[in-house]
Structures are given as structure tokens and as C-alpha cells.
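Reading group handout, session on sequence-to-structure problems. Before we discuss, look at one worked example. The prompt was deliberately terse, the way you'd type it at a terminal:

> structure SWIM-type domain-containing protein

The input record follows.
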Amino acid sequence: MRRFHAAAVSVEEMQDINTYAVVLSERHDGTGIRLEIQKALSFDDQDRASGMDTYCLCTESGACHHGGVTRWMAGENSIEVSLDEQASSALGVDGGFHVEVSAHYLPILRVALQRLLGT
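And the output record:
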């Protein structure tokens, strides 16, 4: 499990690029360990045909993977995102992410993760 404290947390809907995203970054300037969870606001037939009609996980290394979350949960001061073997391998992490965040971000993160990842 890759563990870090997110000094920067962003949840944004960007209609101009058809994306809804959560970004958790180790440093305020967006550098360091980073987890991005993105999902298009709408999908086309090509997205559906290629299996890209789901969320995408990306890290600071540029590694990306569509799908692969087996479970997620929000605690009192952290979120945890567990990954299947294929996603773990593609992203270079062992099992997923455990991210400590300030408690005041948790209500919006719960809503955002529900929107991106479902139950």
C-alpha cells in the first residue's frame, strides 16, 4: 500500500475538457507523490468499445490505468483505495493507496469518490 499525506486536495469538474477529477498531492505545489482519479463527464461509442468508459487512475510518474479499484473507504482522516492486481502492477503500487487528508476535506471527498468510483 502506498501511503502519503496529501497537503493539496482538489476536486473539480472541468466541462471544457469533459473531465471530473480528484487530485491528492503530497505537496502544495502538486509535486511529490500524487494520486489522480479522473472520469469523463460523458462517453462516446469509441470509449465504450475500447473499455475506456470508466474512471482512470494516474500517479506522479505518469502511469495510468482504467478501472481496477476493488474497494474504497473514507475514514476519519484518510481515504483508502484498494486495487486489483492488474491496476497495482500498472501503477507500480502494492495493493493501492492510503492517503491521509485533513478531516475538513473528507465530506467532499466522499461525494467525489462516490461519483467517480461508485460503491
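Points for discussion. First: DSSP finds three helices and nine strands in the chain. Second: The two ends are 20 Å apart (CA to CA).
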